[in-house]
Amino acid sequence: MAIALLFAIPAVQASELMHTGGLTSQPIGHFEFCKSNPGECAVRSADGGPEHMTGKLWRQLASVNLSVNDSIKPMNDFDIYGKDEVWAYPDGFGDCEDYVLEKRRILMNSGISLSNLLITVVRKPDGEGHAVLTVRTDKGDFVLDNLAAAVKLWDETGYRYLKRQASDHTGRWVSIRDGENTMVGAVR
C-alpha cells in the first residue's frame, strides 16, 4: 500500500514554480565535474517550458527516485576519493550530488529535456548543504531527493533553496529568490 501511494499522482493544484534570479556562482564540485566532463556542462537547450505532468511521468519520477536511492550506498566523498566535493556518476557509492547526477542521467536518457532537470543546491533544516534534482513541470517544481522516498513539490520539502542550474545552459547557475547565495564551496 505504501509503495502504491508513492506511485499515485498527487492531487495537487499547479504549485507555484521556484522563482529564479540572475546568474550566480557555480558550486566548486560542479565546476570540477565540468572540467572532467565538458560535454555535460556545455548543453544549451531552448527552454520549451516545463514538462507536462502525466500519470506516466509521475510514475517515472517516483520509480527513478526509489530505484536510484536503493541502488547507491550513501558514502561521503572523503571516504570514496580522499577529498571533499567530488561530483561524479556513482559506482555503487555516493553522496547527494552523485544521486542527483544519476537520476538526471536516467531521466535525460528517457527523453526529458535537460532544461527541466536541474541540479539544485539547498540548505537542510539543520543548516547542512545538500543537493537535489528539481524537475520542472506544469504542476510545479518537483524534487527527487536521496533523503526521501517520495517525490515532493519543492515548497513541501522543508529546505531553503539557494541556487540551481540555469534552464538554458547546463554549465550556468542561477540564484533562487528569497534564498541566500552562499559563497562557501563556490567559484565565480
Question: Could you name the ranges where pLDDT drops below 50 across 5 or more consecutive residues?
Answer: 179-188
**Shape label:** globular
Helix content: 25-40%
Q: What string gives the helices and strands in order?
A: HEEHHEHEHEEEEEEE
Give the tally of β-strands.
11
Strand arrangement within the widest β-sheet reads 1-10-9-5-6-7-8
Using the CA coordinates, give the radius of gyration.
15 Å
Helical stretch tally: 5
- Residues in β-strands, percent: 25-35%
The average pLDDT value, as a whole number, equals 90
Through-space gap between termini: 47 Å
Q: Decide which structural class fits the backbone.
A: alpha+beta
> Could you describe the largest sheet, including whether it forms a barrel?
7 strands, antiparallel
Oligomer: single chain
Blueprint (SSEs and pairs):
Elements: H1 2-7, E1 20-24, E2 26-27, H2 28-36, H3 55-71, E3 73-74, H4 77-81, E4 93-94, H5 96-109, E5 117-123, E6 129-137, E7 140-144, E8 152-153, E9 160-166, E10 169-176, E11 186-187
Helix pairs in contact: 3-5
What features would you describe in this structure?
The protein contains five helices and eleven strands; from the N terminus they run αββααβαβαβββββββ. It has 188 residues and is an alpha+beta fold. A hairpin with a 2-residue loop joins strand 9 and strand 10 (169-176). Helix 3 crosses helix 5 (96-109). The protein is globular and about 40 Å long. Residues 179-188 have low confidence and may be disordered.
